[in-house]
Amino acid sequence: MTDQSLSREKRPTAKKGFLFLIVLAVIAAVLAAFALSLRSEEGPKLPTTAPQPLAVSVAPAQLQPSFELRERFSGIASASRESDLGFIAGGRIDRFAADIGDRVKKGETLASLDTRSLRAQLRASEALVEEARASADIADATLRRQSTLLEQGHVSPQRVEEAMAQSQTAKARVQSAAAQADTLRVQIDLSTVTAPFDGVIVDRFADEGVIAGPSQPILRLVETGPMEARIGVPADVAERLEPGADYSLLVGDRSVPAQLRSETGVIDARSRTVTAVFEISAEAKVPSGSVVRLAVEETIDEDGVWVPVTALTEVSRGVWSVLVAEPEGDTSIARARPVTVIHTDGSRAFVRGVLDDRDLIILEGLQRLTPGQPVLPRNGAFAGRSTSAE
Q1: How far apart are CA 181 and CA 176, in angstroms?
Q2: Comparing C-alpha atoms, which of 191, 278, 157, 179 is closest to residue 226?
Q3: pTM, to two decimals
């Protein structure tokens, strides 16, 4: 059998094609009948009852022509003076007269060096002073005798001049020896650290027997008495502060009285604030290093409504809205009202928009609601209705 004859036998015939079309038609008819059998004779089912209203917590809007803005600025309370004390000259520390926690008075001795070598040098220097004074006395006596002999004509004027020079040299030696002794006395005095002001010892950096270097700190003294607080405030706030006026500073949950001593009037390049210095009374007993806060109130002439932040929904970037329960027949419908946020303090916001005192603002649960949904208003508590923003 040739290849040509095999090719003819494998070609589909018209009869086979017709049978294939009949099979496809039967299958399509069966599928259509099955689809029709699934359809209900009554047509699609539609809801016949309205959805149940969702209970929501609401509070009436309270329009205000302005609000009190209270801003807080922080600073650190510190002593008016704080000094790291040490010896001007180095030496071995002999003793400490005060320790950490001791309260000391101005001029009180706090520590001292071993001065035995200096005192020995001082005694030698004082002996030299006495020797120089004795030589000066002899030179003065010689000058007087030579002057007498000159008047009698027994000596020449040159002898008198030589005696005068020896007397002046002897007096100069006395002054030099006395100056050396004074230097040693000063060194002995500087071998003692005294309190420059009334205060309390808060730290100690060395012990007895240690060789302290020049200007090496060995004690830290913090002044007792009124504390001061340095607080950075914006320039416009600094203009409203009055030096000498009394203010209240917050230390934790406690309010303490303070007086504004001064403000620099210069804007710090890093913080962009002006430093205000407050003096805190010692009776307030504010520990050094405490965080203090200054509260400054300002009236903002903007009309609006206080709402909790849970009542706000962001429609788009920078655009906000609140939902109100609007009466409609026997029920209420959630309606969206666009608002502009004027100020927020974290838990609540002062907003301005198409609101009036009759509106019932939905306070929370906005994720369960959509505009146009039936709601059942319930009286809710909004704790943030005061007119000051902290």
Answers
A1: 9
A2: 278
A3: 0.54
